[in-house]
Amino acid sequence: MAGAIGYSLKNLTNFNGRDGRKRFLSYFLFVVILNLVLYLAASIPTIMAAMDAGIEAAKTGDNSTAETAIMNHMIDFAGTLVWISLGIALLNIVLLSAAFVRRAHDTGLPGLLLAIPLGLQLVWMFFAYRQLDGLQATMRAAVDAQMAGQSPEVQTGMIAQDLIGWLVVIIVLVIGFLKTQRSENQYGGPNLKP
After folding, report:
1. What is the C-alpha R_g of the chain?
2. CA dihedral sign, ordered 123, 129, 133, 134
3. Rounded CA separation 22/150 (Å)
4. What kind and span of H or E run contains 58?
5. What letter does residue 109 receive in the DSSP assignment?
């Protein structure tokens, strides 16, 4: 796995040649783990601060005050989390584009196939950026509705955005799992090294 990661990082701008299934999927797993680490590193301090605020508010004996304090901290962090998500999405484009093209070449598909997940990722980023202005108000309205015993309004735009994000992952995985062409193709000979 270390060899696949090292190779892919050294070839971030190399869109030529072929990458085998094992190399690509090992590198993709590395990128997924990197994403999780970055999200956790960004979120844990805020979660801890929200919990501290909730514990402090719970000393009053009113559970709803504690819940409100926790939710206020989390809502205040939502915009920052969107910016972090946009940064990580951009990082993913840089980290995966060339490897994706080489993997597509390995299956005999054109590298232009990258336009599909790249376009979807850019659409996801656009919608994430557009929701920044109203995100806190939307979250506050949902929390207020829940506190009042009502069902929060379904945010179809956010659901569609999440589906777009998962569609990108599915497309990358499908290409990653496709069978390697064992013979030479228009992109070169098979690269059977891990």
Report:
1. 21
2. positive
3. 49
4. helix 21-58
5. -
Report d(CA 180, CA 162) in Å as an integer. Answer: 30
Nearest to 24 by CA among 98, 84, 74: 98
d(CA 164, CA 144): 28
The C-alpha atoms of residue 24 and residue 96 are separated, in whole angstroms, by 9
Mean pLDDT, the chain, whole residue set:
85
Q: What is the pLDDT of residues 24-54, one digit of tens each?
A: 999 999 999 999 999 999 888 888 887 887 7
| The token pair that represents 6 in the structure block | 């090292």
Q: Please say whether the beta carbons of 73 and 50 come within 8 A.
A: yes
Q: Cα(51)–Cα(42) distance, rounded to whole angstroms?
A: 15
pTM attached to this predicted model: 0.81
Query: Are the C-beta atoms of residues 98 and 14 closer than 8 Å to each other?
Result: yes
Helix (H) or strand (E) holding 92: helix 63-106
> What is the rounded CA–CA span in Å between residue 150 and residue 138?
15
pLDDT at 192 over 80: no
- Rounded alpha-carbon distances, angstroms, from residue 15 to 4, 10, 18, 155: 16, 12, 9, 39
